[in-house]
Specification:
338 residues; alpha+beta; seven-stranded mixed beta sheet; 14 strands; 28% strand
């Protein structure tokens, strides 16, 4: 059913209010109403729209509204300005959408692929149907996560394409470390974890033609500030979550997104030439599963054993009663055993 005109107005006003509050300061309902040419009641309704979408907004008598401390609206220009010149030169375009079902899906459906060696970057303040691996939902409340996708065109199919999610995991750890986050690990094949709880995840999708260029879309989501309802939703889906507020108190999403773009865009040309090899040692050092009892799902048949790291191509090695088994990314689901 199409939205009623007043609902469309509320959604549009909500975006304007969110971005206006993105500077971190307080703004009264009266001031916002005057600025946007609406009633104070309309502002209040817009704030309700934001809160219902998961935004963390403080309302203080005689001061007004503000986004919770440290939360800021995403800004493409601010993001690109924080990139080194060499990385900026590799950015074909960078956009921030207000709301999308999925940033990955939007880039895959785009009619224009980025030129070879350059990146198309898309972020969303709010994903309504974000996707994780194996069709799982990625929960990302408004303002509470970084939802980032990067489209990249390879001249031909990279030899270690199956290990690309591991490469992106290494890039994420580099970016988060530079952002002051410590104690992180990588859970094969695509999760960033802290103390066994999930901070972020990677989803790689691709489009290719026979003997031609290959377009990959790299999706990465990072929990920044999850309220109780979002945490409960993630837990119900089978993952214990953690966010940056809990780990470090740092919530500068523009700086974090810039760090992720910097590391990924710098790594992709190297990956195209050298494959997984330059990243393997870092991944092994951060391996959250090595030496632990795991259960690997292949279809409906679990394979139990001890994780023994990864091979040169990034496949998971598991010691089972039947011997050492090799599992390729994209085919399995791993759960650490108690």
């Amino acid at each position: 059913m199409p939205a009623a005109p007043q609902d469309q107005l509320a959604a549009t006003l909500a975006e304007r209010v969110f971005r206006r509050l993105g500077d971190g300061g307080f703004a009264s309902g009266q001031a916002l109403a005057r600025e946007f040419g609406v009633t104070r009641s309309a502002v209040w309704k817009a704030v309700r729209v934001l809160v219902n979408a998961g935004a963390r907004i403080e309302a203080v008598p005689n001061r007004g509204y503000r986004l919770s401390e440290g939360i800021a609206a995403l800004d493409a220009a601010r993001l690109v300005a924080q990139l080194p010149e060499g990385v900026q030169a590799r950015v074909a375009r960078c956009e921030v959408a207000w709301a999308l079902p999925s940033t990955n899906a939007a880039l895959l459906a785009a009619g224009e692929d980025p030129p070879q060696g350059r990146a198309a970057i898309l972020l969303a303040e709010h994903q309504t149907a974000g996707r994780g691996r194996r069709g799982r939902q990625w929960v990302a409340p408004l303002g509470g996560a970084v939802c980032l996708s990067i489209a990249w065109t390879f001249a031909e199919l990279p030899r270690d394409l199956a290990a690309l999610s591991l490469v992106i995991g290494v890039c994420a750890l580099r970016a988060l470390s530079a952002h002051g986050v410590r104690g992180l690990a990588l859970k094969w094949p695509n999760d960033v974890v802290a103390g066994g709880r999930k901070l972020g995840g990677v989803l790689i999708e691709m489009r290719a033609e026979s003997a031609g260029p290959v377009v990959v879309v790299i999706g990465i989501g990072v929990n920044v500030a999850l309220e109780a309802p979002a945490r409960a939703q993630v837990t119900a889906a089978g993952n214990a979550p953690v966010d940056l507020v809990e780990l470090s108190g740092s919530t500068d999403r523009n700086a974090l997104a810039a760090g992720l773009v910097r590391e990924i865009v710098a790594a992709l040309p190297k990956f195209a030439v050298d494959g997984f090899t330059p990243f393997a040692a870092e991944w092994r050092e951060a391996d959250a599963l090595r030496g632990r009892a795991v259960s690997v799902m292949l279809g409906d048949e679990p394979q139990a054993g001890i994780a023994r790291g990864i091979d040169a191509g990034g496949a998971l090695l598991v010691e089972t009663p039947a011997g050492l088994q090799r599992f390729v990314t994209g085919e399995v689901s791993v759960r650490a055993q108690a």
